[in-house]
């Protein structure tokens, strides 16, 4: 392969593939942005999921002991907590994918400083959520067997 077949250290065929990959990354980035916008507008938004709670009093009738209602309340809260964390993790990971795609397309060092910092903050937060889950599983504090 002669130097006439090379463009910036990459073969012309390779450069064409990189251009197509750049277009594919742009298309993918737009799809990720759309998914993130849709999630933020949906009932699956972490804030909305977290706000959908049931009070303990709403499941009991007066002062009489109703153990099944208490058990239902405990299970609901366990599921609600897991769904809230899942929604938050999904939201964060989609946001991180969007930043990563931009970094792959333009180069991570060419991203705005706030985007790079946000990417690493998301990684830290997702790792923290994962570590909390692992700790709870090891400690047996999940309280159910449907994990």
Give a brief outline of the structure.
With 147 residues, the protein is an all-alpha fold. It has helices at residues 12-41, 46-51, 67-106, 113-139, and strands at residues 6-7, 10-11.
Describe the structure.
The chain has one domain. Helix content is 70%, strand content 3%. Residues 1-10 and 143-147 have low confidence and may be disordered. The chain has a two-stranded antiparallel ribbon. The termini are far apart. A hairpin with a 2-residue loop joins β1 (6-7) and β2 (10-11). It contains four helices and two strands.
What are the SSEs and their pairings?
Blueprint: E1 6-7, E2 10-11, H1 12-41, H2 46-51, H3 67-106, H4 113-139
Antiparallel strand pairs: 1-2
Helix pairs in contact: 1-3, 3-4
Biggest sheet character = 2 strands, antiparallel
Helix tally equals: 4
Distance between the termini: 56 Å
- The helix-strand sequence is EEHHHH
Mean pLDDT: 77
Number of strands: 2
Question: Beta-sheet strand percentage?
Answer: under 5%
Q: What Rg, in angstroms, do the CA atoms define?
A: 23 Å
The structure class reads: mainly alpha
For the biggest β-sheet, the strand order reads: 1-2
Q: Which labels suit this protein?
A:
single chain; 147 residues; mainly alpha; two-stranded antiparallel ribbon; disordered N terminus; disordered C terminus
